[in-house]
Each structure stands twice: as structure tokens, then as C-alpha cells.
């Protein structure tokens, strides 16, 4: 069991997003670069490092969807917007706020859960806010290898877009398969995690990156 999961269970809470990202990084699952800011000065420094536009989110240990409670601000384009957003969100979060670059790419759904009958299951498909409407998701019982991960990807409608469609350049399918294999290993070695939600994960020309992470224990 990963130390982050042990700590969260001991404290009777869910892991925060920075903690989830630490677990992902330890399993070689790439995450979008980010900074945690607990003051306006730290928020400004993060903006100076990343440049605009930015995304700012509350940090919670309750495992809830941040968007549904107004805990996410997208497309921050100035210092004034940054400070206004920090003041608003910091009142909702005892752990500070998470700041990362605003990126545009192909949105993927990547997740996993523990099934009572089959054990660990990984999921892949079309991501974004309409994930539950599209229902373009492929599932596999863990563990999976590279070939099984590639079959998962090919089963989805988003696969055609990943190959290159209209103004979208072809993406590195192997990188996505590698992410799924590493997620499978994470699930196998940490069955205490009941649900993993990595929506959205962005497929960019330079690689694939998790932009949001939520673990339910």
C-alpha cells in the first residue's frame, strides 16, 4: 500500500488532489504540472512560472467533484483574475488551491474501480464533462499488459480521433497504453482505493497528461 493511502486511511479521510498526483507520479503516470498556493504571493509566483491562461481548483479531502460545488475556475488570463479567484476559492479550501496551466487537447476519461465480483477494473474512453452522456468507455479487469491496453483503446470511438482527425494531429497511442498499464499496477497494489477518477486526462501532441485526480477509499 502506498504511503499516501496509509496516511489518508489513518486520518479517516480521502487523499487530496496533490496527494493523488504524488501516487500517480510514483507509478509513472504523467500529470499536468501544477503548484499548490496558500497565499496570494504563491499564486502570483505560480502564474509567473506557468504563464496564462491558468486553471485554479480547491483542494479537498472529501473526495467530492470540485466542479459541482463551484470549486474550479477555468481560463484565468490576468493577475487580477488570478487574485480574485484565489480569494474566492481559498475560502472554500483549508489546504490552499491547486494551480496549473490551461491546456487544450483531446479529453480522455481514464479511471478504475474495485468490483465486488471481479476485483480491480480499469476504464478508458472519451473524457470531459459529457463523459456520462457519450458512454464511450472500454473496461478491463486488472492486471492488463500493453496489448490488452491497446485493444481497450481501439474499442472506443475516441480512438479514431487519436489517430488524427481534421485539425487534430495524430497522438502517441503507445503513451496512452503505457498509462493504462501503470494504472492497472496501481490498482493491483492498492486495493484499498475503491475508485480512481482521472477525468479529464489530456492527449496532447507532446504526450498524455492527467489534469484532475480523485481517489475514493
TrEMBL record:
Residues 21-57 form the ATP-grasp domain. SUPFAM superfamilies: Glutathione synthetase ATP-binding domain-like. InterPro entries: Acyl-CoA_Synth/Transferase, ATP-grasp, ATP_grasp_subdomain_1. GO terms for molecular function: acetate-CoA ligase (ADP-forming) activity; ATP binding; metal ion binding. Pfam families: ATP-grasp_5. The keyword Ligase applies. Coiled coil: none annotated. It catalyses: acetate + ATP + CoA = acetyl-CoA + ADP + phosphate. The keyword Ribonucleoprotein does not apply. Its EC number is 6.2.1.13. This is acetate--CoA ligase (ADP-forming). It comes from Ferroglobus placidus (strain DSM 10642 / AEDII12DO).
Amino acid at each position: 500500500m502506498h504511503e499516501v493511502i496509509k496516511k489518508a486511511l489513518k486520518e479517516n479521510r480521502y487523499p487530496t488532489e496533490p496527494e493523488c498526483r504524488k501516487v500517480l507520479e510514483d507509478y509513472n503516470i504523467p500529470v499536468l504540472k501544477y503548484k499548490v498556493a496558500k497565499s496570494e504571493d504563491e499564486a502570483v509566483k505560480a502564474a509567473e512560472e506557468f504563464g496564462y491562461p491558468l486553471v485554479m481548483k480547491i483542494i479537498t479531502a472529501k473526495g467530492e467533484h470540485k466542479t459541482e460545488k463551484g470549486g474550479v475556475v477555468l481560463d484565468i488570463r490576468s493577475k487580477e483574475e488570478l487574485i480574485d479567484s484565489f480569494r474566492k476559492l481559498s475560502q472554500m479550501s483549508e489546504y490552499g488551491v491547486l494551480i496549473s496551466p490551461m491546456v487544450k487537447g483531446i479529453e480522455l476519461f481514464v479511471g478504475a474501480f474495485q468490483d465486488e465480483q471481479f476485483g480491480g477494473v480499469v476504464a478508458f474512453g472519451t473524457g470531459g464533462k459529457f463523459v456520462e452522456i457519450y458512454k464511450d468507455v472500454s473496461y478491463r479487469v486488472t492486471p492488463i499488459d500493453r496489448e490488452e491496453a491497446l485493444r481497450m483503446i481501439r474499442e472506443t470511438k475516441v480512438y479514431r480521433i487519436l489517430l488524427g482527425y481534421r485539425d487534430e494531429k495524430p497522438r502517441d497511442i503507445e503513451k496512452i497504453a503505457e498509462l493504462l498499464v501503470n494504472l492497472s499496477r496501481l490498482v493491483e497494489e492498492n486495493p484499498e482505493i475503491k475508485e480512481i477518477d482521472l477525468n479529464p486526462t489530456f492527449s496532447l501532441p507532446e504526450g498524455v497528461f492527467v489534469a484532475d485526480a480523485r481517489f475514493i477509499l
